[in-house]
From TrEMBL:
Residues 485-558 are annotated as: Disordered. This is Putative extracellular protein TR9_063. Residues 1-25 form the signal peptide. The keyword Signal applies. It comes from Trebouxia lynnae. InterPro entries: PbH1, Pectin_lyase_fold/virulence. Residues 489-509, 518-558 have a biased composition (Low complexity). Coiled coil: none annotated. Keywords: Signal.
Amino acid sequence: MLTSPKTFVSVMAIALVCQITSLQAQVPAPAPGTMLESDAAAAATYPISSQEQQPLTNSASLPVTCNITLIGLPASATPAVAAAGRRLQAATNTSRGLSTADIHCTGSYNVTIVGGPALQTFASGWTGVNFNLNNALPQGTIYLSGISILFENSRFVNLTEYGDGSIMFQDSTVAFTNTSFVGNIQATAGAIFANNTVLSIDNSNFTNNHGFQSGAIQMLGSNSMMYVNGTTFHNNTGSQGGAIYMVNGTSLAVEDSTFTNNTALTGGGIFMSRVSDTYIYNNYFYHNNVSQAGGGINSANCSGDLIDNEFVSNFATSGGGVWQTTSGNYVVFNNVFMGNNATIGSGGYEMTNCSNCDFSLNQFTFNKGQQGAGLYLGESTGNVDSCYFDNNTANAFAGALFMDADTGNVTNCAFENNAAMSIGGAIYGQRGTGNIESSSFAGNSARYGAAVYWNDWDGLINTNNALAPADLLFDASTGNAGGIQGTDSFGTGNTGSPGSTSSASGGVTNANGVTRDASSGASTPSSTTSTTIATPTESTPSSSSSGVTPSTGSGINT
C-alpha cells in the first residue's frame, strides 16, 4: 500500500523525481473555464489552478522536452495554411484542421513524433526531433512510443477528431507540467490515452474535454503508473470516469487536485478498477454527477488509501461520494462527505465486499440516500472509529450507518440529528457481528429504532449517553440483539445476554434492573411496572442497499 507521495515517486525514479508542496487549504469550486475559439488570437490564458504549487523538477533530466500548442478549428471552419518555419501546416484535405500548430522540442537524442495529416510539417529548424507523417492516424493526433519525454507550458485545444486521444502513448515515460487540455473531443479519451506507460501530471488543467469512454485521461496496461498533482479537472464528460479512467494498472496517486462538474455514467471524477495500489490524498470533489454509481469515485478491486479528501454535493444512483466494491486492504481516513445524494444506495460512501477496510476520523454530514445515507458497509470486514455523523437522511433505512452482513466494531463515534423514514435513525445492522462502543447518540429519529435497529446481529452496545428504550429495537423474528450496556439510564451492567431470544426486543434493561420484553409486556424480575416496546411491522431491507449489480451499477467495462 502506498503510504506517501514520496513512496510513489521513488517507484518512478527511472523517469523523474517529483518534489511537491502540499496545499495549505482546500479551495472552493472554481468557476468554469472559457473555451477557446478557433482562432489563435482568441486563445487566452486558461485557469490552470488557483493553488500555488512548487514546479515539477526532475533529478534525472528527461532526454526530450517539448513545448506544444495545438489549437483546432471547428467543424465548419476552412483551414488556412500556416507560415513556414517551426509552425505546422494545417490539413488541407478535411474541413477540420488546425488554426495553430507549433511544436518545439530539445533533447539529447532524436525521437519520432507521429502525427495525422493535420500535422504536415516544415521540419527545418527543429532540434532533437524527427517528424514522420502517418495518414492512418486521425487529424491532430500525436502518437509516442518507447520514449521518455516532458511536456512543459503546452496546450491542446479544440482537437475534435475522434481518435483514441488527443495525444497517445505506448510503453513510454511521460511528464506534463503546466499544460492545458481544453475542449477536445475524441472517441476514447478526450485528452490523453496511454498504455503501459509511466505518466506524471503536475499543475495542469483539463477542461471541457469529452471522450466516449473517459472524459480526460485513460490509462491501461499492467505496467501503467500514474501520478497527478495540483491539477484541475472541470466539466469533462465520459461514460466511465468523467475525468480519469485507469484499469489494470500498478499504481495511481492523485494529490492536491480538484474535480468539479464532471459527468459520466459511472465514476464522475475517477473510475479505477484492478489497480494494485491507490493513493487519493487531499483532493476536492465537487458537484460531479453520474447516472449510475460513484459520483466522485467509482472503485473496484483496488487497494490503497483515501485520505484528507472532501466530497461535496456529488450525485449518483448509489454512492454519491464514493462507490467501492471488492477491495483488499483499504484505509479511509479524515475525509469529509457533505451534501452528497443518491437515489437508491448511500449518499456518502458505499462499500461492499471489502476484506479489510477501516474508516477513521471521517465526517458524514447532510448526505441523503435510500439506505445508509452517510455510510453503507455491505459484506465487509472492518471498523468505524472516531467518525462523526450529523444530519444525514435516509428515505428508508439507516439515516447514518448501514451495516449489512459485516464483521466489525463502531467505536468512539457520534451520531447526531440523523433520520430514517422507516427504521434505524442512526444505525441499522443485519446479519452481522460487532459491537457499538463508547459512542453517543443525540437527536436521531426514525419510525422504529431512533438510534439503533438490529436484525439478527450479535454484539454489545455501550453508549456514552442515556437512550430511551424505544431508541433501541431488535427484529421480532430473531431478537438476536446481544447485550445492551449503558452508562446512564440503562445502568452499567450487561442487561441482555448475547443471543437473547425474546420474540420482539431481545432484552432491554433500564437502571433499576427491569427487563423490558415486548413479547409479553411483563417485567422480570419486577420491582416496578415495565414499559412495552413496540414491535416494528416494517419490512427489512435486502442485503444489497443499492440494488445495482456491477454490470449496471458500477459501469465496469474492461
